[in-house]
Amino acid sequence: MNLRIYKNIDDVISALAENICEVAKESIQARGQFNFVLSGGSSPKKLYELLASDSFKNKIDWDKTYFFFGDERFVPADDSQRNSVMVEEALFKPLKINKSNIFKIDTTGSPEESAQKYWQSILKHFDGKPVKFDFNLLGLGDNSHTASLFPNTSVLKETEATIKSIFVEEVDMDRITMTAPLINDSRHIAFLVFGEGKAEAVFHVLEDQSGSATEYPARLITKDENKVQWFLDGMATSRL
After folding, report:
1. Is the pLDDT of residue 214 over 90?
2. What percent of the chain has pLDDT over 70?
């Protein structure tokens, strides 16, 4: 398991930002673009703000960077609960990212239509080539969910690399999410996890021998050390 453990949150985020810059440079050199899947929630906000800061903003060719969302809440486009609204303020606006480089999830139709439309926009972007994102950023909920792969939901059984809609009873909300196979097809995957409140979830996903991915969905993400890294602080690893 490729664990990168740091003393504090700032060190975790700085190391992850450096890693993203390295992958971006490699991807643009190799394929002419950097396809970056963003995570929502509170944890990555500081990361996005750092990438947009004077220290990092010139390390990536943003004109050749395309942004996607690993999941989204099925709420209106301007709803403050949306992942895209947070990222807009923390990253897109400060960097003046071209709207054509941002693939937001359209929630004007039904959840099923929204998922299908998003998948079609991804397929169009990759233009007949295999859908392989260069960098897929993930978080980890205290219930061991990642993206919108929640415990005991039907999407956990999905074997196709695609986008799905799912009603999550736990949060009483429809969600749009990348399936585990689609996430696992990414060239690089990084979990950003910090804080004592995540220690139990980290233990269940990485070390606990009991239970299953139905209970701890982040176990569905590949353990391939050449592909996935965990960026953690000491408190998040206190149970390992």
Report:
1. yes
2. 100
CA distance 86 to 49: 10
pTM: 0.98
Q: Which two tokens stand for residue 239?
A: 């149970």
**Domains in the chain, start-ordered, CATH in brackets?**
3-234 (3.40.50.1360)
**Residue 165 and residue 115: Cα distance in Å, rounded?**
6
The closest alpha carbon to 134, from 5, 12, 30, 14, belongs to 30
Using a 10 angstrom Cβ sphere, with 0-12 exposed, 13-18 middle and 19 or more buried, the burial of residue 65 is: buried
The answer to whether 75 and 81 have CB atoms below 8 angstroms apart is yes
Q: Is the per-residue pLDDT at 1 higher than 90?
A: no
Residue with token string 């139905």: 214
Using DSSP, state whether 102 is helix, strand or coil.
strand
Per-residue pLDDT reduced to its tens digit, 92-125: 999 999 999 999 999 999 999 999 999 999 999 9
The enclosing H or E element of 123 equals helix 111-126
Q: Which residue reads 């079609």 in tokens?
A: 120
